[in-house]
Design goal:
The structure holds two protein chains of two kinds. In chain A, about 75% of the residues lie in helices and about 0% in strands. Chain A is mainly α. A two-stranded antiparallel ribbon of chain A has the order 1-2. In chain A, strand 1 (about 35) and strand 2 (about 40-45) form a beta hairpin. In chain A, helix 2 (about 50-55) crosses helix 11 (about 255-285) and helix 5 crosses helix 7. Chain A is globular, with a radius of gyration of 23 Å. Chain B is α/β, with parallel strands linked by helices. Chain B folds into two domains: about 1-235, Rossmann fold (3-Layer(aba) Sandwich); about 235-280, no CATH class. In chain B, the strands form three sheets. Chain B has a six-stranded mixed beta sheet, sandwiched between helices. In chain B, helix 2 (about 90-100) packs parallel to helix 4 (about 135-150) and helix 3 crosses helix 4. The chains are: A mainly alpha, B alpha/beta. The interface of A and B includes residues 186, 192, 199 and 285 of A.
Chain lengths: ~290, ~280
Amino acid sequence: MKNRRVIPFLLLIPFMLVTAAVIAAVINVIVQGLGYIKAFGLTTFTLDYYKEVLKRPDLVQSLLVSLKIAVFSAVFASVLGTLVCAALIRCRRASGGMLTIVQMPILVPHAVVAVFTVALLTQNGIIPRILYAAGLLHNYSNFPDFLYGTSYTGAILAYIWKEAPFVAYFTLALMKSVGETLGEAAENLGASPLRSFFDITLPMSMPAISQAFLIIFIFAFGGYEVPLLLGATLPKAFPVATYIEFQAPDLRDRPYAMAMNGITLILSALMALAYALLMHRMMKKRGVRA
Amino acid sequence: MIKLSIEDLQVKLGKNVILPDISLQVEEGAFISLLGPSGCGKSTLLKAIAGIYPASKGTVQLNGREITDLPPHKRNVVIVFQDMRLFPNMSVAENVAYPLKIRKVGAEQRRSEAEKLLSDVQLEGFGDRRIHQLSGGQQQRVALARALAARPDVLLLDEPFSALDENLREGMRALVKELHQKFRMTTILVTHDRQEAMSMADKAAVMMDGKILQYDEPTEIYHHPADEHVAEFFRDCVYLSGSVEGGVFRTDGRIELPLGIDDGTYDVMLKAGAVPEKKEAE
Protein backbone atom coordinates (compact mmCIF):
# COMPACT_ATOMS: atom_id res chain seq x y z
CA MET A 1 0.00 0.00 0.00
CA LYS A 2 2.76 2.34 0.97
CA ASN A 3 4.49 1.78 -2.39
CA ARG A 4 1.38 2.72 -4.26
CA ARG A 5 1.39 6.15 -2.74
CA VAL A 6 5.07 6.71 -3.35
CA ILE A 7 5.24 5.48 -6.94
CA PRO A 8 3.36 8.41 -8.55
CA PHE A 9 5.73 10.83 -6.88
CA LEU A 10 8.76 8.84 -7.98
CA LEU A 11 7.44 8.81 -11.55
CA LEU A 12 7.00 12.58 -11.42
CA ILE A 13 10.60 13.23 -10.34
CA PRO A 14 12.08 13.60 -13.86
CA PHE A 15 9.31 16.03 -14.80
CA MET A 16 9.78 18.01 -11.62
CA LEU A 17 13.54 18.19 -12.18
CA VAL A 18 13.00 19.63 -15.66
CA THR A 19 10.43 22.08 -14.33
CA ALA A 20 12.82 23.11 -11.57
CA ALA A 21 15.55 23.70 -14.16
CA VAL A 22 13.20 25.88 -16.23
CA ILE A 23 12.14 27.87 -13.18
CA ALA A 24 15.80 28.30 -12.17
CA ALA A 25 16.59 29.55 -15.69
CA VAL A 26 13.69 32.03 -15.57
CA ILE A 27 14.84 33.31 -12.17
CA ASN A 28 18.36 33.60 -13.56
CA VAL A 29 17.05 35.63 -16.52
CA ILE A 30 15.13 37.97 -14.24
CA VAL A 31 18.00 38.44 -11.78
CA GLN A 32 20.57 39.03 -14.51
CA GLY A 33 18.20 41.36 -16.36
CA LEU A 34 18.05 43.44 -13.21
CA GLY A 35 21.81 43.85 -13.45
CA TYR A 36 23.01 41.32 -10.91
CA ILE A 37 25.76 38.99 -12.21
CA LYS A 38 28.23 38.44 -9.43
CA ALA A 39 30.77 36.62 -11.63
CA PHE A 40 31.11 39.69 -13.85
CA GLY A 41 31.37 42.05 -10.90
CA LEU A 42 27.80 43.40 -11.35
CA THR A 43 26.26 43.49 -7.89
CA THR A 44 23.61 46.24 -7.82
CA PHE A 45 19.97 45.68 -8.77
CA THR A 46 18.70 48.26 -11.26
CA LEU A 47 15.96 48.75 -13.89
CA ASP A 48 18.36 50.73 -16.06
CA TYR A 49 18.91 47.87 -18.53
CA TYR A 50 15.16 47.60 -19.15
CA LYS A 51 14.93 51.39 -19.55
CA GLU A 52 17.83 51.47 -22.00
CA VAL A 53 16.47 48.59 -24.06
CA LEU A 54 13.12 50.36 -24.34
CA LYS A 55 14.86 53.61 -25.31
CA ARG A 56 16.81 52.08 -28.20
CA PRO A 57 14.81 52.74 -31.42
CA ASP A 58 16.16 49.64 -33.18
CA LEU A 59 15.09 47.38 -30.32
CA VAL A 60 11.66 49.00 -30.07
CA GLN A 61 11.34 48.38 -33.82
CA SER A 62 12.33 44.74 -33.21
CA LEU A 63 9.71 44.43 -30.49
CA LEU A 64 7.04 45.83 -32.82
CA VAL A 65 8.11 43.49 -35.62
CA SER A 66 7.83 40.46 -33.35
CA LEU A 67 4.44 41.62 -32.09
CA LYS A 68 3.29 42.06 -35.68
CA ILE A 69 4.50 38.58 -36.65
CA ALA A 70 2.75 37.14 -33.60
CA VAL A 71 -0.56 38.96 -34.19
CA PHE A 72 -0.78 38.23 -37.93
CA SER A 73 0.36 34.62 -37.60
CA ALA A 74 -2.01 33.88 -34.73
CA VAL A 75 -5.04 35.63 -36.28
CA PHE A 76 -4.68 34.14 -39.77
CA ALA A 77 -3.67 30.68 -38.54
CA SER A 78 -6.64 30.63 -36.14
CA VAL A 79 -9.16 31.71 -38.79
CA LEU A 80 -7.76 29.37 -41.43
CA GLY A 81 -7.36 26.49 -38.98
CA THR A 82 -10.95 26.90 -37.77
CA LEU A 83 -12.20 26.82 -41.38
CA VAL A 84 -10.15 23.71 -42.13
CA CYS A 85 -11.50 22.08 -38.96
CA ALA A 86 -15.09 22.93 -39.89
CA ALA A 87 -14.54 21.65 -43.43
CA LEU A 88 -13.07 18.35 -42.19
CA ILE A 89 -16.08 17.80 -39.95
CA ARG A 90 -18.60 18.83 -42.59
CA CYS A 91 -17.07 16.44 -45.14
CA ARG A 92 -16.95 13.67 -42.52
CA ARG A 93 -13.15 13.52 -42.77
CA ALA A 94 -12.46 14.07 -39.09
CA SER A 95 -10.34 10.93 -39.02
CA GLY A 96 -8.33 8.89 -41.49
CA GLY A 97 -6.19 9.84 -44.47
CA MET A 98 -7.38 13.40 -44.99
CA LEU A 99 -6.65 14.25 -41.37
CA THR A 100 -3.17 12.78 -41.66
CA ILE A 101 -2.43 15.08 -44.60
CA VAL A 102 -3.71 18.07 -42.65
CA GLN A 103 -1.61 17.06 -39.66
CA MET A 104 1.66 16.84 -41.60
CA PRO A 105 2.81 20.45 -41.21
CA ILE A 106 2.60 20.01 -37.42
CA LEU A 107 5.40 17.43 -37.65
CA VAL A 108 7.73 19.53 -39.78
CA PRO A 109 10.35 21.52 -37.81
CA HIS A 110 10.22 25.29 -38.10
CA ALA A 111 13.67 25.56 -39.71
CA VAL A 112 12.56 23.14 -42.41
CA VAL A 113 9.37 25.14 -42.94
CA ALA A 114 11.58 28.20 -43.44
CA VAL A 115 13.60 26.39 -46.11
CA PHE A 116 10.37 25.25 -47.83
CA THR A 117 9.19 28.83 -47.83
CA VAL A 118 12.43 29.98 -49.46
CA ALA A 119 12.16 27.26 -52.10
CA LEU A 120 8.57 28.21 -52.85
CA LEU A 121 8.46 31.96 -52.56
CA THR A 122 11.74 33.55 -53.67
CA GLN A 123 11.45 35.38 -56.96
CA ASN A 124 12.94 32.40 -58.78
CA GLY A 125 11.23 29.88 -56.48
CA ILE A 126 8.81 27.13 -57.38
CA ILE A 127 5.60 29.18 -57.29
CA PRO A 128 6.90 32.06 -59.50
CA ARG A 129 8.25 29.47 -61.93
CA ILE A 130 4.90 27.71 -62.16
CA LEU A 131 3.14 31.04 -62.67
CA TYR A 132 5.71 32.00 -65.32
CA ALA A 133 5.33 28.69 -67.13
CA ALA A 134 1.55 29.13 -67.04
CA GLY A 135 1.95 32.53 -68.62
CA LEU A 136 0.52 34.29 -65.59
CA LEU A 137 3.77 36.07 -64.82
CA HIS A 138 5.71 38.07 -67.44
CA ASN A 139 8.82 38.48 -65.45
CA TYR A 140 10.10 36.81 -62.25
CA SER A 141 10.70 40.21 -60.72
CA ASN A 142 6.95 40.91 -60.98
CA PHE A 143 6.36 38.27 -58.31
CA PRO A 144 5.80 40.01 -54.94
CA ASP A 145 8.87 40.04 -52.75
CA PHE A 146 7.68 38.11 -49.69
CA LEU A 147 11.07 37.24 -48.30
CA TYR A 148 13.79 39.18 -46.50
CA GLY A 149 11.63 42.33 -46.49
CA THR A 150 10.72 44.50 -43.53
CA SER A 151 7.08 43.35 -43.87
CA TYR A 152 8.07 39.84 -42.68
CA THR A 153 5.35 38.41 -44.95
CA GLY A 154 7.40 35.28 -45.60
CA ALA A 155 7.79 34.56 -41.89
CA ILE A 156 4.09 35.13 -41.30
CA LEU A 157 3.16 32.83 -44.22
CA ALA A 158 5.50 30.15 -42.87
CA TYR A 159 3.86 30.35 -39.44
CA ILE A 160 0.38 30.23 -40.97
CA TRP A 161 1.28 27.17 -43.03
CA LYS A 162 2.61 25.38 -39.99
CA GLU A 163 0.15 26.55 -37.34
CA ALA A 164 -3.23 26.54 -39.13
CA PRO A 165 -3.22 22.70 -39.10
CA PHE A 166 -2.31 22.87 -35.42
CA VAL A 167 -5.42 24.98 -34.75
CA ALA A 168 -7.53 22.55 -36.79
CA TYR A 169 -6.19 19.53 -34.95
CA PHE A 170 -6.42 21.20 -31.56
CA THR A 171 -10.05 22.26 -32.12
CA LEU A 172 -11.29 19.14 -33.90
CA ALA A 173 -12.47 17.01 -30.97
CA LEU A 174 -14.41 19.83 -29.27
CA MET A 175 -15.91 21.22 -32.47
CA LYS A 176 -16.98 17.75 -33.60
CA SER A 177 -18.75 16.93 -30.38
CA VAL A 178 -20.45 20.36 -30.20
CA GLY A 179 -21.52 20.08 -33.84
CA GLU A 180 -22.95 16.60 -33.36
CA THR A 181 -25.05 17.62 -30.36
CA LEU A 182 -25.82 21.33 -30.07
CA GLY A 183 -25.19 22.09 -33.76
CA GLU A 184 -27.50 19.26 -34.75
CA ALA A 185 -30.14 20.62 -32.36
CA ALA A 186 -29.90 24.09 -33.94
CA GLU A 187 -30.36 22.66 -37.44
CA ASN A 188 -33.27 20.62 -36.16
CA LEU A 189 -34.86 23.88 -34.95
CA GLY A 190 -34.56 25.35 -38.44
CA ALA A 191 -31.10 26.92 -38.58
CA SER A 192 -29.18 26.41 -41.84
CA PRO A 193 -25.86 24.56 -41.41
CA LEU A 194 -23.99 27.86 -41.82
CA ARG A 195 -26.17 29.64 -39.28
CA SER A 196 -25.93 26.77 -36.82
CA PHE A 197 -22.13 26.92 -37.17
CA PHE A 198 -21.90 30.64 -36.44
CA ASP A 199 -24.61 30.77 -33.76
CA ILE A 200 -23.70 27.65 -31.83
CA THR A 201 -20.77 25.50 -32.93
CA LEU A 202 -18.23 28.30 -33.36
CA PRO A 203 -18.96 30.14 -30.09
CA MET A 204 -18.96 26.85 -28.20
CA SER A 205 -15.61 25.90 -29.79
CA MET A 206 -13.99 29.19 -28.78
CA PRO A 207 -12.23 27.79 -25.69
CA ALA A 208 -10.12 25.50 -27.89
CA ILE A 209 -9.62 28.04 -30.68
CA SER A 210 -8.54 30.82 -28.34
CA GLN A 211 -6.21 28.49 -26.49
CA ALA A 212 -4.57 27.55 -29.79
CA PHE A 213 -4.43 31.28 -30.64
CA LEU A 214 -2.58 32.01 -27.42
CA ILE A 215 -0.09 29.18 -27.98
CA ILE A 216 0.67 30.37 -31.53
CA PHE A 217 0.88 34.02 -30.47
CA ILE A 218 3.40 33.35 -27.74
CA PHE A 219 5.33 30.90 -29.90
CA ALA A 220 5.57 33.28 -32.87
CA PHE A 221 6.39 36.20 -30.59
CA GLY A 222 9.34 34.30 -29.15
CA GLY A 223 10.20 32.55 -32.43
CA TYR A 224 13.79 32.76 -33.54
CA GLU A 225 14.63 30.62 -36.56
CA VAL A 226 11.75 31.54 -38.88
CA PRO A 227 12.25 35.35 -38.78
CA LEU A 228 16.04 34.83 -38.81
CA LEU A 229 15.91 32.79 -42.01
CA LEU A 230 13.09 34.67 -43.77
CA GLY A 231 13.23 38.21 -42.40
CA ALA A 232 14.98 41.47 -43.06
CA THR A 233 18.41 42.50 -41.80
CA LEU A 234 16.78 45.45 -40.07
CA PRO A 235 14.62 45.59 -38.08
CA LYS A 236 15.37 42.17 -36.69
CA ALA A 237 12.75 40.16 -34.83
CA PHE A 238 13.07 40.66 -31.08
CA PRO A 239 14.40 37.15 -30.26
CA VAL A 240 16.99 37.50 -33.07
CA ALA A 241 18.11 40.85 -31.67
CA THR A 242 18.17 39.31 -28.19
CA TYR A 243 20.48 36.53 -29.30
CA ILE A 244 22.83 39.01 -30.95
CA GLU A 245 22.88 41.00 -27.72
CA PHE A 246 23.53 37.78 -25.81
CA GLN A 247 26.59 37.14 -27.97
CA ALA A 248 28.05 40.62 -27.33
CA PRO A 249 31.82 40.33 -26.76
CA ASP A 250 31.68 42.34 -23.54
CA LEU A 251 30.20 40.01 -20.93
CA ARG A 252 29.18 43.02 -18.88
CA ASP A 253 26.54 43.71 -21.58
CA ARG A 254 24.83 40.40 -20.71
CA PRO A 255 22.09 42.12 -18.61
CA TYR A 256 20.80 43.84 -21.80
CA ALA A 257 20.09 40.45 -23.37
CA MET A 258 18.53 39.26 -20.14
CA ALA A 259 16.36 42.40 -19.86
CA MET A 260 15.16 41.68 -23.41
CA ASN A 261 14.34 38.12 -22.40
CA GLY A 262 12.56 39.58 -19.40
CA ILE A 263 10.45 41.76 -21.69
CA THR A 264 9.49 38.70 -23.78
CA LEU A 265 8.59 36.83 -20.59
CA ILE A 266 6.51 39.69 -19.19
CA LEU A 267 4.58 40.26 -22.42
CA SER A 268 3.92 36.52 -22.81
CA ALA A 269 2.77 36.29 -19.20
CA LEU A 270 0.48 39.30 -19.69
CA MET A 271 -1.05 37.64 -22.76
CA ALA A 272 -1.59 34.43 -20.83
CA LEU A 273 -3.15 36.38 -17.96
CA ALA A 274 -5.48 38.30 -20.28
CA TYR A 275 -6.48 34.98 -21.82
CA ALA A 276 -7.12 33.39 -18.44
CA LEU A 277 -9.31 36.31 -17.33
CA LEU A 278 -11.25 36.25 -20.58
CA MET A 279 -11.80 32.49 -20.36
CA HIS A 280 -12.82 32.71 -16.74
CA ARG A 281 -15.49 35.27 -17.56
CA MET A 282 -16.74 33.32 -20.53
CA MET A 283 -16.84 30.01 -18.67
CA LYS A 284 -18.53 31.51 -15.64
CA LYS A 285 -21.28 32.79 -17.88
CA ARG A 286 -21.76 29.27 -19.26
CA GLY A 287 -21.38 27.56 -15.93
CA VAL A 288 -18.37 25.51 -17.02
CA ARG A 289 -15.11 25.51 -15.15
CA ALA A 290 -12.25 26.70 -17.36
CA MET B 1 -56.13 13.54 -42.27
CA ILE B 2 -52.70 11.93 -42.50
CA LYS B 3 -50.00 14.28 -41.26
CA LEU B 4 -46.94 12.09 -41.57
CA SER B 5 -46.62 9.14 -43.85
CA ILE B 6 -43.62 6.85 -43.94
CA GLU B 7 -43.47 4.24 -46.70
CA ASP B 8 -40.94 1.40 -46.93
CA LEU B 9 -38.28 3.50 -45.26
CA GLN B 10 -34.81 2.00 -45.04
CA VAL B 11 -32.05 3.59 -42.97
CA LYS B 12 -28.41 2.56 -43.03
CA LEU B 13 -25.65 3.81 -40.78
CA GLY B 14 -22.43 3.02 -42.58
CA LYS B 15 -22.93 -0.49 -43.86
CA ASN B 16 -25.35 -1.55 -41.14
CA VAL B 17 -29.02 -1.60 -41.97
CA ILE B 18 -30.67 -0.24 -38.83
CA LEU B 19 -34.20 0.02 -40.19
CA PRO B 20 -34.82 -2.45 -43.04
CA ASP B 21 -38.35 -1.48 -44.05
CA ILE B 22 -40.60 0.79 -41.98
CA SER B 23 -44.06 2.08 -42.82
CA LEU B 24 -46.03 4.29 -40.47
CA GLN B 25 -48.97 6.70 -40.81
CA VAL B 26 -49.65 9.38 -38.23
CA GLU B 27 -52.92 11.31 -38.15
CA GLU B 28 -52.98 15.07 -37.81
CA GLY B 29 -52.93 16.10 -34.14
CA ALA B 30 -52.39 12.54 -32.90
CA PHE B 31 -50.13 11.55 -30.05
CA ILE B 32 -48.40 8.30 -30.84
CA SER B 33 -45.62 6.45 -29.10
CA LEU B 34 -42.79 4.34 -30.46
CA LEU B 35 -42.18 1.63 -27.93
CA GLY B 36 -39.48 -0.98 -27.79
CA PRO B 37 -36.40 -2.19 -25.99
CA SER B 38 -33.25 -0.09 -26.31
CA GLY B 39 -31.40 -0.68 -29.55
CA CYS B 40 -34.58 -1.53 -31.48
CA GLY B 41 -34.15 1.46 -33.81
CA LYS B 42 -36.79 3.83 -32.44
CA SER B 43 -34.41 6.77 -32.00
CA THR B 44 -32.99 6.08 -35.44
CA LEU B 45 -36.49 6.27 -36.89
CA LEU B 46 -37.00 9.60 -35.11
CA LYS B 47 -33.77 10.99 -36.51
CA ALA B 48 -34.67 9.73 -39.98
CA ILE B 49 -38.03 11.54 -39.76
CA ALA B 50 -36.14 14.70 -38.74
CA GLY B 51 -33.72 14.25 -41.65
CA ILE B 52 -30.64 13.82 -39.47
CA TYR B 53 -30.13 10.32 -40.86
CA PRO B 54 -30.70 10.02 -44.61
CA ALA B 55 -33.07 7.42 -46.00
CA SER B 56 -31.44 4.87 -48.29
CA LYS B 57 -34.83 3.69 -49.59
CA GLY B 58 -38.49 4.62 -49.24
CA THR B 59 -40.25 7.92 -48.70
CA VAL B 60 -41.29 10.28 -45.93
CA GLN B 61 -44.26 12.56 -46.58
CA LEU B 62 -45.38 15.47 -44.45
CA ASN B 63 -48.75 17.12 -45.17
CA GLY B 64 -48.86 15.11 -48.38
CA ARG B 65 -45.56 16.57 -49.58
CA GLU B 66 -42.50 14.41 -49.97
CA ILE B 67 -39.66 15.49 -47.68
CA THR B 68 -37.39 12.45 -48.01
CA ASP B 69 -34.48 14.43 -49.45
CA LEU B 70 -35.09 17.68 -47.58
CA PRO B 71 -32.26 18.74 -45.19
CA PRO B 72 -33.15 18.82 -41.45
CA HIS B 73 -33.50 22.60 -41.21
CA LYS B 74 -36.15 22.71 -43.93
CA ARG B 75 -38.43 20.03 -42.49
CA ASN B 76 -40.03 21.78 -39.52
CA VAL B 77 -39.97 18.54 -37.58
CA VAL B 78 -38.46 19.21 -34.17
CA ILE B 79 -36.91 16.77 -31.72
CA VAL B 80 -36.76 17.21 -27.96
CA PHE B 81 -33.54 15.31 -27.35
CA GLN B 82 -32.95 12.98 -24.44
CA ASP B 83 -29.87 15.03 -23.45
CA MET B 84 -31.85 18.27 -23.98
CA ARG B 85 -29.13 20.08 -25.94
CA LEU B 86 -29.86 23.57 -24.67
CA PHE B 87 -27.39 26.22 -25.81
CA PRO B 88 -25.13 27.19 -22.90
CA ASN B 89 -24.05 30.38 -24.68
CA MET B 90 -27.60 31.75 -24.46
CA SER B 91 -29.97 32.59 -21.63
CA VAL B 92 -33.12 30.54 -21.03
CA ALA B 93 -35.28 33.08 -22.90
CA GLU B 94 -32.79 33.26 -25.79
CA ASN B 95 -32.88 29.48 -26.05
CA VAL B 96 -36.67 29.47 -26.27
CA ALA B 97 -36.66 32.38 -28.72
CA TYR B 98 -33.95 30.87 -30.94
CA PRO B 99 -36.32 29.18 -33.43
CA LEU B 100 -38.18 32.50 -33.72
CA LYS B 101 -34.93 34.36 -34.31
CA ILE B 102 -34.13 31.98 -37.17
CA ARG B 103 -37.57 32.70 -38.59
CA LYS B 104 -36.77 36.44 -38.44
CA VAL B 105 -39.42 37.30 -35.83
CA GLY B 106 -38.82 40.79 -34.34
CA ALA B 107 -37.10 41.15 -30.97
CA GLU B 108 -40.17 42.38 -29.11
CA GLN B 109 -42.42 39.59 -30.34
CA ARG B 110 -39.69 37.04 -29.66
CA ARG B 111 -39.47 38.17 -26.09
CA SER B 112 -43.22 38.06 -25.48
CA GLU B 113 -43.61 34.65 -27.14
CA ALA B 114 -40.71 33.23 -25.16
CA GLU B 115 -42.31 34.51 -21.97
CA LYS B 116 -45.64 32.97 -22.92
CA LEU B 117 -44.04 29.61 -23.69
CA LEU B 118 -42.02 29.67 -20.48
CA SER B 119 -45.22 30.20 -18.55
CA ASP B 120 -46.79 27.29 -20.49
CA VAL B 121 -44.05 25.04 -19.12
CA GLN B 122 -44.40 26.58 -15.66
CA LEU B 123 -41.14 28.51 -15.75
CA GLU B 124 -42.34 32.12 -15.47
CA GLY B 125 -39.55 34.49 -14.60
CA PHE B 126 -36.75 32.09 -15.48
CA GLY B 127 -35.97 33.83 -18.80
CA ASP B 128 -32.82 35.61 -17.68
CA ARG B 129 -31.23 32.58 -16.04
CA ARG B 130 -28.31 30.72 -17.54
CA ILE B 131 -28.86 27.08 -18.51
CA HIS B 132 -26.49 25.75 -15.85
CA GLN B 133 -28.55 27.43 -13.14
CA LEU B 134 -31.51 25.15 -13.87
CA SER B 135 -32.25 21.68 -12.54
CA GLY B 136 -32.60 18.72 -14.90
CA GLY B 137 -36.39 18.91 -14.86
CA GLN B 138 -36.36 22.63 -15.55
CA GLN B 139 -33.93 22.14 -18.43
CA GLN B 140 -36.23 19.53 -19.91
CA ARG B 141 -39.11 21.98 -19.76
CA VAL B 142 -37.01 24.69 -21.46
CA ALA B 143 -36.18 22.18 -24.20
CA LEU B 144 -39.89 21.52 -24.61
CA ALA B 145 -40.71 25.25 -24.75
CA ARG B 146 -37.95 25.78 -27.32
CA ALA B 147 -39.32 22.98 -29.50
CA LEU B 148 -42.86 24.42 -29.25
CA ALA B 149 -41.51 27.85 -30.25
CA ALA B 150 -40.57 26.39 -33.62
CA ARG B 151 -44.29 25.52 -34.15
CA PRO B 152 -43.25 22.20 -35.68
CA ASP B 153 -45.50 20.22 -37.98
CA VAL B 154 -44.51 17.18 -35.99
CA LEU B 155 -43.02 17.19 -32.49
CA LEU B 156 -40.67 14.31 -31.75
CA LEU B 157 -39.88 13.42 -28.15
CA ASP B 158 -36.82 11.19 -27.76
CA GLU B 159 -37.11 9.55 -24.33
CA PRO B 160 -37.55 13.00 -22.83
CA PHE B 161 -38.27 11.77 -19.32
CA SER B 162 -35.64 9.10 -18.92
CA ALA B 163 -33.05 11.49 -17.44
CA LEU B 164 -35.49 12.70 -14.79
CA ASP B 165 -36.20 11.43 -11.29
CA GLU B 166 -39.28 9.25 -10.98
CA ASN B 167 -41.25 11.93 -9.13
CA LEU B 168 -40.42 14.56 -11.77
CA ARG B 169 -41.30 12.22 -14.59
CA GLU B 170 -44.97 12.04 -13.68
CA GLY B 171 -45.26 15.83 -13.64
CA MET B 172 -43.52 16.12 -17.01
CA ARG B 173 -45.80 13.52 -18.55
CA ALA B 174 -48.85 15.42 -17.37
CA LEU B 175 -47.37 18.65 -18.72
CA VAL B 176 -46.61 17.13 -22.11
CA LYS B 177 -50.17 15.78 -22.35
CA GLU B 178 -51.58 19.14 -21.33
CA LEU B 179 -49.48 20.96 -23.94
CA HIS B 180 -50.53 18.45 -26.55
CA GLN B 181 -54.18 19.21 -25.76
CA LYS B 182 -53.47 22.92 -25.96
CA PHE B 183 -51.39 23.06 -29.16
CA ARG B 184 -52.84 19.96 -30.87
CA MET B 185 -49.43 19.30 -32.31
CA THR B 186 -48.85 15.94 -33.98
CA THR B 187 -46.51 14.24 -31.52
CA ILE B 188 -44.37 11.12 -31.57
CA LEU B 189 -42.97 9.93 -28.27
CA VAL B 190 -40.08 7.48 -28.22
CA THR B 191 -39.83 5.44 -25.05
CA HIS B 192 -38.83 2.06 -23.73
CA ASP B 193 -41.23 2.50 -20.82
CA ARG B 194 -44.37 0.48 -21.49
CA GLN B 195 -46.46 2.34 -18.97
CA GLU B 196 -45.46 5.67 -20.48
CA ALA B 197 -46.17 4.55 -24.02
CA MET B 198 -49.52 3.02 -23.20
CA SER B 199 -50.86 5.68 -20.86
CA MET B 200 -49.90 8.75 -22.88
CA ALA B 201 -50.49 7.87 -26.51
CA ASP B 202 -53.57 7.52 -28.70
CA LYS B 203 -51.73 4.85 -30.61
CA ALA B 204 -48.53 2.94 -29.97
CA ALA B 205 -46.11 1.30 -32.38
CA VAL B 206 -44.21 -1.60 -30.84
CA MET B 207 -40.76 -1.86 -32.39
CA MET B 208 -38.22 -4.66 -32.27
CA ASP B 209 -35.08 -5.25 -34.32
CA GLY B 210 -35.80 -2.32 -36.60
CA LYS B 211 -39.36 -3.43 -37.41
CA ILE B 212 -42.76 -2.25 -36.29
CA LEU B 213 -44.51 -5.37 -34.97
CA GLN B 214 -47.82 -3.77 -34.09
CA TYR B 215 -49.28 -0.29 -34.50
CA ASP B 216 -52.55 0.08 -32.70
CA GLU B 217 -54.44 1.61 -29.83
CA PRO B 218 -52.90 0.76 -26.46
CA THR B 219 -55.88 -1.33 -25.28
CA GLU B 220 -55.79 -3.31 -28.53
CA ILE B 221 -52.11 -4.05 -28.00
CA TYR B 222 -52.84 -5.16 -24.43
CA HIS B 223 -55.65 -7.42 -25.33
CA HIS B 224 -54.68 -8.59 -28.79
CA PRO B 225 -50.94 -8.59 -29.20
CA ALA B 226 -50.09 -9.18 -32.86
CA ASP B 227 -47.57 -11.92 -32.15
CA GLU B 228 -45.70 -13.63 -29.37
CA HIS B 229 -42.91 -11.01 -29.40
CA VAL B 230 -45.36 -8.25 -28.58
CA ALA B 231 -47.04 -10.46 -25.99
CA GLU B 232 -43.64 -11.30 -24.56
CA PHE B 233 -42.77 -7.63 -24.34
CA PHE B 234 -45.80 -6.98 -22.15
CA ARG B 235 -45.88 -10.25 -20.34
CA ASP B 236 -44.14 -9.56 -17.07
CA CYS B 237 -46.40 -6.72 -16.05
CA VAL B 238 -49.22 -4.48 -17.15
CA TYR B 239 -50.16 -1.14 -15.71
CA LEU B 240 -53.62 0.25 -15.26
CA SER B 241 -53.86 3.95 -14.56
CA GLY B 242 -56.69 5.28 -12.47
CA SER B 243 -57.56 7.02 -9.26
CA VAL B 244 -58.71 6.16 -5.79
CA GLU B 245 -61.76 7.90 -4.40
CA GLY B 246 -63.22 6.91 -1.08
CA GLY B 247 -60.84 3.98 -0.87
CA VAL B 248 -61.97 2.51 -4.21
CA PHE B 249 -59.62 2.34 -7.20
CA ARG B 250 -61.34 2.98 -10.55
CA THR B 251 -60.02 2.90 -14.10
CA ASP B 252 -62.20 4.20 -16.95
CA GLY B 253 -65.29 2.82 -15.28
CA ARG B 254 -64.57 -0.81 -15.99
CA ILE B 255 -62.56 -1.94 -13.04
CA GLU B 256 -63.31 -1.22 -9.41
CA LEU B 257 -61.02 -2.37 -6.63
CA PRO B 258 -61.81 -1.59 -3.01
CA LEU B 259 -58.30 -1.03 -1.64
CA GLY B 260 -58.84 1.21 1.35
CA ILE B 261 -55.85 3.45 0.61
CA ASP B 262 -55.52 7.25 0.50
CA ASP B 263 -57.25 9.09 -2.34
CA GLY B 264 -55.17 10.18 -5.36
CA THR B 265 -53.96 8.94 -8.75
CA TYR B 266 -52.45 5.45 -8.87
CA ASP B 267 -51.18 2.86 -11.27
CA VAL B 268 -52.15 -0.72 -10.66
CA MET B 269 -49.58 -3.24 -11.81
CA LEU B 270 -50.66 -6.71 -12.85
CA LYS B 271 -47.91 -9.29 -13.05
CA ALA B 272 -47.46 -12.22 -15.44
CA GLY B 273 -50.50 -13.96 -16.84
CA ALA B 274 -52.43 -10.73 -17.29
CA VAL B 275 -51.82 -10.66 -21.02
CA PRO B 276 -53.80 -13.18 -23.05
CA GLU B 277 -51.45 -15.33 -25.04
CA LYS B 278 -52.50 -15.28 -28.65
CA LYS B 279 -50.43 -18.33 -29.42
CA GLU B 280 -52.68 -20.45 -27.24
CA ALA B 281 -55.86 -18.80 -28.46
CA GLU B 282 -55.10 -19.66 -32.07
